[in-house]
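U., I forgot to send this yesterday:
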Amino acid sequence: MVVLSDDDEGKYLVDATGEQFGIVSEVDEAAGVAYVDPDPGIVESISETFGHGDAESDDIRVPQESVANVTDDELQVDADL
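Result:
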C-alpha cells in the first residue's frame, strides 16, 4: 500500500500509459489525499517542485488508494486516465 507524504508535493501524476496529468500541489497526509494541479503555470510549477504549493478549487483529488506506485518524480495510477 502506498502512503502519501509531503515529500510527494511537486511530483507528476501519470497514468498507466505514462501520460502526465499535472503536478501534486499539496498532500493531506491525515486524509491520505494528493491534490493535483492539472494546469500549473511556470511559477506554480516551480513552487510545487519545492513543496510550497497549495491546493486550489480546480485541483484533482487523488486518494492514496488510487496510487499504484511512487517514484522520485511521479505518482503513478493503474488506470488509463
